[in-house]
């Protein structure tokens, strides 16, 4: 059973070069979508082609974006 456990950091590293959605911790309803370029051991994220969404409505296109890991509530691949 212990061999099937995947650490969250390894899962995030496997998402590099894919489209992801990042939900922010402090600001309810604020999310970012973009292509994950890089991630470090603190879960700081570098996104390209990023778009900000507020309450599920497109807010603005941001382009290159860096998000600090301690501000992230969830990270998910875009289906």
Q: What is the succession of H and E elements? A: HEEEEE
Mind summarizing the main beta sheet? 5 strands, antiparallel
Number of domains: 1
Determine the mean pLDDT. 91
- The low-confidence parts are none
Cα shape: globular
How many runs of DSSP E, i.e. beta strands? 5
Name the CATH class: Mainly Beta
Terminal Cα separation, in Å?
28 Å
Structural class: mainly beta
Q: Major sheet: order of its strands?
A: 4-3-2-1-5
Could you describe the 3D structure shown?
This protein is mostly beta strands. The protein has one domain: SH3 type barrels (Roll). 8% of the residues lie in helices and 54% in strands. The protein contains one helix and five strands. The chain has a five-stranded antiparallel β-sheet, with no helix packed on it. Strand 1 and strand 2 (30-39) form a beta hairpin. The chain is globular and about 40 Å long. The chain starts with 7 loop residues before the first helix and ends with a strand. The mean pLDDT is 91.
């Amino acid at each position: 059973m212990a061999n099937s456990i995947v650490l969250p950091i390894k899962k995030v590293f496997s998402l590099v070069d894919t489209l992801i959605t990042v939900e922010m911790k402090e600001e309810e309803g604020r999310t970012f979508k973009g292509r994950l370029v890089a991630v470090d051991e603190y879960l700081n994220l570098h996104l390209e082609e990023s778009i900000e969404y507020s309450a599920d409505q497109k807010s603005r296109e941001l382009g290159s974006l860096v998000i600090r890991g301690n501000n992230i509530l969830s990270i998910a691949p875009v289906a």
